[in-house]
Amino acid sequence: MANESKWRGESKRIKTVSLVPIAQAIERSRRDREERQKIVLWKKPLTTLRYFLLETVINLKVWAYRVWWWRSILLLTLLLLISAGTVCYIEGPHQLYVSYLEKKILWCSYWVGLGILSSVGLGTGLHTFLLYLGPHIASVTLAAYECNTVNFPEPPYPERITCPDEAIQEEFISLWAILSKVRLEACMWGAGTAIGELPPYFMARAARLSELEPDDEDYEEIEEMLEDPDSPQDFASWAKKAIQTLVKKVGFFGILACASIPNPLFDLAGIACGHFLVPFWTFFGATLIGKAIVKMHIQKLLVIMAFSKHIVEQMVTLIGAIPTLGPSLQKPFQEYFEAQRLKLHHKSEMKNIMEKENWVSWVFEKLVVVMVAYFVLSIINSMAQSYARRIQQQMNSGEKMN
Q1: pTM of the full predicted structure?
Q2: Cα 320 from Cα 100, distance rounded (Å)
């Protein structure tokens, strides 16, 4: 009995001693994370810029090495591009098709790029739907009701929307007609957002296969939650856990469900799929279908319904009904929509209206500038913190060696 009590006491002491290094590592990780979060432009501008430049140099070296490693494929791609460019500049009847393909490829690439910018970076992406795709769909909707058609002259469409010069028979503008008109742009943007979700997936998958410490704070937090499901959780943690469970248990259709709705926590689905080694095509296929087809049609419907002619008129009327401020707020909106209407019809009166700066368009332009500036700042801060993490890892490794 005495030996058993002694053995239990010794076992308890060993467990306590073994937990000490773990607790110290967790505390050090917490302190390091707090230190990194202080490295931002508005707190430590010089340090942040210096770390950002050093991290940029490291990333350029890594990319240069990768380009050299894949030099044969890069050379083949370059030869194909040179051949395609040569064909494009040779005169002949094929130039009509070349011009059409060039226009479509550039237009699709533009929206795919905006989609990637929107979803890349674990929630720090540029909100290009609000800044670009949403306004484009709204412009097409307003123009369709004003022109009584969606057959806008090409060119200048899609760069600029104008009504046809010739008289057209008034027709019923359906939701389906407007949906079809903006389907290509919306689907390309949705495909870009699906591509932008791949980095979290590959990061989590590589970390799981190599069993290395992930180089991302958001991933670390989610990884701890996946490994310790019984830990205390607030609502946000509960939502993340619910998405992780859905993806793990339902698979393809769970990923599809998460990707088919506006979901700011979808990065977690990508990390969970990578962590549980979900096959690439299962993850990407479900994400592509959900974001480029299902979700985009939902978002298009909402924008088209919000900017249909009678809804806009009711909105302007309701603004005018606001006590005291109503008339002064209503006037800029009326001028803005009138200017857009005249612009569609090539009216010369538009110049007189546009000479007066409309505060609605001014506010939107400044909003675009602010959001782009925030996006750039977030990139600089994130890269500076990544370099700070490298320094901390080197210091911790040196302490372990000593």
Answers
A1: 0.70
A2: 46
